[in-house]
Amino acid sequence: MTEEVETKDAIKTQEYFVNMGPQHPSTHGVLRLMLELDGEIIKRVIPHIGYIHRSIEKMSEKDSYRQIVHLTDRMDYLSNHMNNEAVCLLVENALEVEVSDRVKVIRTIMSELTRLSSHQLWWGVMGMDLGALTTFLYAFRDREMINDIFEETCGARLTVNYNVPGGVMFDIHPNFQKRVKDFIKHFKTKLPEYDRLLSDNVIFRQRTEGVGILSKEDAISYGVTGPTGRASGFSNDTRKHKPYSAYDRVEFKEILMDKGDTFSRYKSRILEMWESISIIEQLIDNIPEGEIQSPAVKQVIKLPAGEYYQSVETARGELGVYVVSDGQKSPYRLKFRSPGFSNLFVLDHMVRGYKIADLVAMMSTIDLVIPDIDR
Amino acid sequence: MDNESLKTKIAQWVPNAEFEETGTSKAQLLNVIITPDKLLDVAYKLRNEEDMKFDFMFSLTCVDFPEHFMMVYHLRSTQTWNEVVLKVKMEDKEKPQVETLCHIWRTAEYHEREVYDLFGIVFKNHPDLRRILLDEEWEGYPLRKDYVDPVNMISL
To answer: What are the chain B neighbours of A309 within 8 Å (beta carbons)?
Structure first.
């Protein structure tokens, strides 16, 4: 008998590699993952990036600051407003120009609408990655309303380019306030539906709870920001710690979780949507009067020689812009600290020992946008 | 810990460190400029000293100046939200080399690969120093100021 058991133990599976992507639906873009597998168990994940690298940092060294703003929403296209805002805030702070209260409030409302639309899309594809197509249709129904609001005020639905250094491109459309209020009223009835459909689903809970745990220490060491880091208890919300625009005059909670598993990362985004709704509600009826663009920002912008860093909170985490200026109309060096780049590489640490299906769920809750990683 | 006391403390560790303040008048960041051989020591202390604990590296990059390369590390403490910029001045433009910091901050591993890819800085003791964004066969380092690519670059 013992001999038989020994023979059984001697059978070993050979470790092998499987290529996931760059055209895999759950990588949400051109990300390629090399999976080192032992049977179905993942031993290691090696991300290969750069398929959509457009050298935005090199291009910025030749562009003017007004042009650079237009490049930024091609990075994280789901956080377009916040990306634009990062460069605009940097220029305004470096020139020591104060924008009007009206601009600040409009920017904050726009940013929160963008965050909502980004989280809606994330929720839709998260369900789809785990096999529930319905969520995608529900999410896109609601996201369409936000895109319509953007289209009316900004003239574009995705690459909006609404922020310019010193203010915003146009004043808000006369319908803006009404449509935002309509949307909020509609969405407040739909968000509990999201919970009923996915958050409380038994299969979904079993696939996400206790899976892919990321500790707070690792989140900090890997530089994981945004809802992904906050689900591990890492307080990193730039809106709270270094308030910009109108975030210092609204009340909202920073959503912090302690478990750090896939479900916490999921739940933190759902709760964050409620906070965004609350921020918009506080501001939408109180948009102060004021000028739309500050005349202090000239057409050709030259930043004083020096170094500047500005961060904003996008839907994925902290986006930082680091500029070395030599006093010319283009930066000497510009670096984007993109949240996706840091967040992606924690995947290998998280996923070891789990199965491929768990990897798909984890990748969804990191909420990757590949152009943001590749820049 | 404010910038002044931070400066005093670092000056004790590295007597020849240079200091400057950058940023806007509202938000001043302390810059600490050191030589490559001091990097590991200073980085380790900034991460672990009791009243500093700069445990979050939120940006790592490089700047190509005419006379030298400058590595730029942005550090933040998640306890106090204090920030400091650590810079390493590399006078050797032919063979720029610096120690890796990926054993102190894990995120450095991938940011260093990016800097290696685009600037050609070699990180000593890095576990996996390969190009990250460009092809393995790519020639040259695009973010250097003297980089020319007649095919893919449009000069304005």
So the answer is: 23, 29, 59, 74
User: Residue ranges of the domains in chain A?
Assistant: 2-374
- Considering only CB atoms, B106 lies closest to which of A50, A221, A242, namely A221
CATH code, domain carrying B74: 3.30.460.80
Cross-chain CB nearest to A94 (options B24, B64, B74): B24
Split at pLDDT 50, 70, 90, the class of A2 is very low
Q: Quick one: what percent of chain A has pLDDT higher than 70?
A: 96
Look over chain B and give the mean of its residue pLDDT values, rounded to a whole number.
85
Instruction: Give pLDDT tens digits for B99-125.
Output: 898 888 988 989 999 999 999 899 988
A260: contact with B, CB 8 A cutoff: no
Instruction: Classify residue B129: in a domain, yes or no.
Output: no
Residue of B nearest to A320 (CA): B59
| Contact in structure between B93 and B68 (CB atoms under 8 Å) | yes
Partners of residue B57 in chain A, C-beta under 8 Å: 223
| A44: chain B residues, CB-CB within 8 Å | none
Overall number of domains in chain B: 1
Interatomic CA distance for residues A361 and A77, integer angstroms: 22
Quick check: is B155 in a domain? no
Strands (E), chain A: 16-20, 32-38, 41-48, 163-164, 167-168, 306-313, 318-325, 333-337
Domain range for residue B10? 3-124
- Strand ranges (E), chain B: 18-23, 28-34, 56-64, 69-76, 83-90, 97-99, 122-124
Q: Is residue B74 part of a domain?
A: yes
Question: Is A140 within 8 Å of chain B by CB?
Answer: no
Touching B: A residues 215-244, CB under 8 Å: 218, 220-223, 225, 234-236, 241-242
Q: Is residue B130 part of a domain?
A: no
Residues of B near A (Cβ–Cβ under 8 Å) read: 22-27, 29, 31, 55-59, 61, 63-64, 72, 74, 78, 81, 85, 105-107, 109-111, 114, 118, 132-135, 142-143, 156
Structure confidence by residue, pLDDT tens digits, A201-220: 888 888 888 888 889 989 99
pLDDT 10s digits, A302-319: 888 888 999 999 998 999
Contact B61 A93 (CB under 8 A): no
What is the structure's pLDDT at B155? 64
Answer whether residue A253 shows pLDDT above 50.
yes
What does the buried/exposed string (b/e) look like for A161-189 if buried means 16 or more CB atoms within 10 Å of the residue's CB?
bbbbbbbbeeebeeebeebbeebbeebee
Which CATH number applies to A2-374?
1.10.645.10
